[in-house]
Design goal:
five-stranded antiparallel beta sheet, 5 strands, globular
Length: 192
């Protein structure tokens, strides 16, 4: 009789475990409330909102005498892996800790920028003051980008990515890897 009770107990625990695991597979992401989607294709360009806000960033900076150059936007997994290898297995400095599929660039949600000098040189000088207003152009661009809803890589606690802006739309990389995508018309911030 004790064996029968033990077997019934173990069977009940096993069945409960199966239902719990199955529920976890179909539960929406806690961070986003979105249902994970399998086999969702990767984007091939910037998200429309990110593109629009990037254009606004360039325009607003130009109004105060700063020329912003968007140096990178959407990146394929292969391109990301090539950049990841820089400073590791290929020449150059390490510029990212994100392998392919681990960067918001791979989902069309990030851009990188630089500044352009009057002679046409593209620079990453965070002290440069082309408009000569006593403030670094870099910090002015960051302020504009944040007002447009971008997160700045220079605010990150660990690896600082000063030329990097992203919009995550409340999605973590794991959500994106599991197929979650922001709506094409998602609004993330009011523009000024």
């Amino acid at each position: 009789m004790k064996r029968v009770k033990l077997l019934l107990f173990l069977l009940a625990v096993g069945i409960s475990t199966i239902f719990i695991l199955k529920d976890k597979e179909t539960m929406p992401s806690k961070a986003t409330g979105m249902e994970p989607k399998k086999d969702v294709p990767l984007p091939t360009e910037l998200h429309p909102v990110v593109k629009e806000r990037s254009d606004q960033l360039v325009q607003q900076a130009a109004k105060i005498g700063i020329v912003v150059v968007i140096t990178d936007g959407f990146r394929s997994i292969e391109e990301q892996n090539t950049i990841y290898e820089q400073g590791r297995t290929t020449e150059g400095n390490i510029v990212t800790n994100a392998k392919g599929g681990e960067s918001y660039h791979n989902y069309g949600l990030a851009i990188d920028f630089a500044l352009e000098t009057p002679s046409g040189d593209v620079i990453w000088d965070r002290q440069y003051d082309r408009n000569q207003n006593g403030k670094s152009d870099w910090s002015e661009v960051v302020k504009i980008a944040k007002s447009l809803g971008f997160e700045w890589g220079g605010d990150w606690k660990g690896f600082k990515d000063y030329p990097h802006f992203q919009m995550d739309f409340g999605l973590k990389i794991a959500d994106l890897q599991n197929g979650a995508r922001p709506d094409e018309s998602s609004a993330v911030a009011d523009t000024q």
